[in-house]
Design brief:
Elements: E1 9-14, H1 21-28, E2 41-44, H2 51-54, E3 59-64, E4 67-81, E5 87-93, E6 98-104, E7 111-115, H3 135-143
Parallel strand pairs: 1-3
Antiparallel strand pairs: 1-7, 2-5, 3-4, 4-5, 4-6
């Protein structure tokens, strides 16, 4: 009997303060969003309970303006101690942002786990050069299942 490979576990996270994938890229290439290794990271108060599963090929799927639009592979989780002495988790990300099929997402706090089997498909790399749809139009099309 051949064992089927499990699809990786992923995270879904709101990209607060960004209005487009280009905004996310601009933020992540800033010194403030990078660690000493030059890799982008997202620092959060909570440490994922399912860290081992996330680190086995998982990605963080970004929701921008209410629409899930792209993902980045999670490379590792680093412990960060804030100036207040509180332990936090830095989710260290691959700098490559991969556009995905869009999906409407309601606001939520923190993150949500996303099983790989339920994750939206990656768009063809050829589509990365296309202009992104305005967030409102993208959300409306995702809402009716067109994109």
């Amino acid at each position: 009997m051949i064992a089927m490979a499990q699809a990786p576990l992923n995270l879904v996270k709101l990209s607060v303060g960004t209005s487009s994938i280009d905004d996310l890229i601009a933020w992540q290439t800033s010194r403030r969003a990078q660690g000493g290794d030059g890799l982008p990271r997202h620092v959060t108060r909570m440490w994922p309970k399912r860290a081992d599963e996330l680190l086995d090929g998982g990605s963080i799927y970004w929701v921008i303006q209410g629409v899930l639009q792209c993902r980045q592979r999670i490379l590792r989780l680093d412990e960060v101690i804030g100036q207040d002495g509180v332990r936090r988790c830095a989710i260290v990300l691959d700098p490559e942002i991969i556009r995905t099929a869009t999906a409407q997402k309601r606001p939520f706090q923190g993150w949500r786990y996303l099983p790989g089997a339920d994750a939206p498909v990656d768009l063809s790399r050829a589509r990365n050069d296309e202009d992104a749809l305005p967030p409102g139009l993208s959300a409306a099309l995702a809402d009716i299942g067109v994109i």
